[in-house]
Amino acid sequence: MGLRDVMYGVYARHLVRDLTASQMPKHVGVILDGNRRWATMQGTGSEQGHRAGAAKIEEFLGWCEEANVEVVTLWLLSTDNLERPPAELEALLGIIAGTVTDLAATRRWRVHPVGALDLLPAHTAEALKEAESDTENVQGLLVNVAVGYGGRREVVDAVRGLLVEHHLRGTSLDDLAAALDAEAIAEHLYTRGQPDPDLVIRTSGEQRLSGFLLWQSAHSEFYFCEAYWPDFRRIDFLRALRAYSQRHRRFGS
Q1: Catalytic residue among 33, 196, 198, 236
Q2: Catalytic residue, candidates 81, 134, 157, 231
Q3: Residues 197-242: pLDDT tens digits?
Q4: What is 25-229's CATH superfamily?
């Protein structure tokens, strides 16, 4: 073990001592950004960058378990990403399906797909559904895998689902208008029944949400990290937790 590793361990322990259990987030959302730029820096292709990013996920979930996080939402593929060149998209979808299947196989976490699965190839959607079915009774961290996800699309789908539900009930237009409120829409989101994210982390230095958990993140705290996702370290995560614990949450006030 080199001096750098020793210093890294000392600093990590210092960060852990600064954390208070009562001030830890229960739901952490992550925009896993920077895989392709990481690959460019390494002199490799985008597929290698996506594979390196996928390899980081299991390690990250372990860190979340250590911090007693209860829900993690990982943005793996946006609706905009579906417009990528076919060869790159096919490889990326294969990596995502394999990663989600491997997460389910550990039997450590409960996997829940969030996104417009109808936009995905049938075999990809089926792999996500199987992972959810295989882990539905697992008593562990809930892991939302956002694939084919867009915040605006989610809100549209929620409103559409609400309208269809009331149409089938025979609800009148006046009664529907009276029933249409924020709580009713929230009950039809992909994450219905879950707490909203306390903390949203984005890697790669970009300081925007790009529509991630657009509805749910209204009162979230945000942390932007310069590291590309494949280089995201435990120490970076601990810094994010420390920053979160030091903030006074006002919930919009």
Answers
A1: 33
A2: 81
A3: 999 999 999 999 999 999 999 999 999 999 999 999 999 999 999 9
A4: Decaprenyl diphosphate synthase-like (3.40.1180.10)
The Cα 209–Cα 239 span in angstroms is 19
Strand partners, 136: none
Which structure tokens are listed for 223?
Answer: 């942390």
R_g of the chain computed on alpha carbons: 19
Residue pointed to by tokens 């925007």:
208
pTM for this prediction = 0.91
Which contacts (CB < 8 Å, 24+ apart) does range 44-51 have? 46/88, 46/91, 46/92, 47/88, 47/91, 47/92, 47/95, 49/230, 50/91, 50/92, 50/95, 51/95
* Residue 68 falls in the annotated catalytic set: no
Evaluate whether 38 touches 229 at the Cβ level (below 8 Å). yes
33 in active site: yes
Neighbours of 213 (CB within 10 A): 26
pLDDT tens, 42-69?
999 999 999 999 999 999 999 999 999 9
- Tokens 């550990």 label which residue? 106
Domain ranges of the chain: 25-229
DSSP states along 204-238: TT----TTTTTTGGGG-EEEE-SS-GGG--HHHHH
